[in-house]
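README, section 4: Worked example with a bound small molecule

Sections 1 through 3 covered apo chains. Here we extend the same pipeline to holo records, where the ligand is supplied as SMILES alongside the sequence. The molecule in this example is zinc ion. Nothing else about the input changes; the structure line simply encodes the ligand pose together with the chain.
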Amino acid sequence: MELYQCIKINDYTWLVAEDIRPDFKNTCAFIIGKKRCALIDTGCGIANIREYVKKLSNLPVVVLTTHVHLDHIGGHPLFDTIYASALEMEKWEGNSDRLKERLNFLKAALEGNGRKYKLIKSNIVRESTFSYHPLADRMIFDLGDIVLEAAMIPGHTEESFVFVERKSGNAFVGDSVNPTPWILDENGKSVEEYGKAVKIFAERFPEIRHLYSGHCIRDIGIQTIQDTLCCVDEIVKGSKDERVNCYAGKAFQHIHGSVSMLYRQSTIRKNS
Ligand SMILES: [Zn+2]
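The generated complex, written as structure tokens:
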């Protein structure tokens, strides 16, 4: 049973996804420059992703973190050079049992696939801590001929970063701009603030042609940006939405085009 799914999107870029269910992946991007590679996120750490990407390139790897959630940083302890939001890392570094949290998350996501759960349990990265360099908006990562630029889009989490490679028009957006954005109170940002950040991002990178998000293994299409902005607009103006159950409890769901946004009444505006 394969734990990873891997597709090549251009000469030097691969999507490497933890294959949890046919409709649910934890997707990482591996970009190979002339001097070094970047691995954007490391999934839940269901197996040794460091060994996996070594088969694609032997060059040194810098790990870039879209946001500090367990399904994006699980494989981080396998690497030596990591960039992540210091603000989010400070809140993350507690005493709780991070391995148990990842296993519980995976068990729920596997929806009863006991065989795969057993395999993951024996391969999972057991270490949960790692050292990191603070990540900031507009940081540039020169991989040798290939350049990635960090852009902060607070919303899904307090900071949340996306990484853009202007030359190819590829943007690796984590859970920031995606078909199912979760803008929930525990993350500390409002729907309104999120919308402003997405708008600034879209204006800053007119060359973006492809979006690769944290839980799909395909180009989700740049229309996602416009649909996201429409969702925000409609929610802020006051839409009548249904409450649905999600992994984080009950939340309102607003749909526009390809985007289905989850939010809570308390998170529409700042301080409301
Ligand atoms: Zn995620």
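What to look for in the output: The chain has one domain: 4-99+127-267. The mean pLDDT is 94.

Section 5 describes how to batch many such records.
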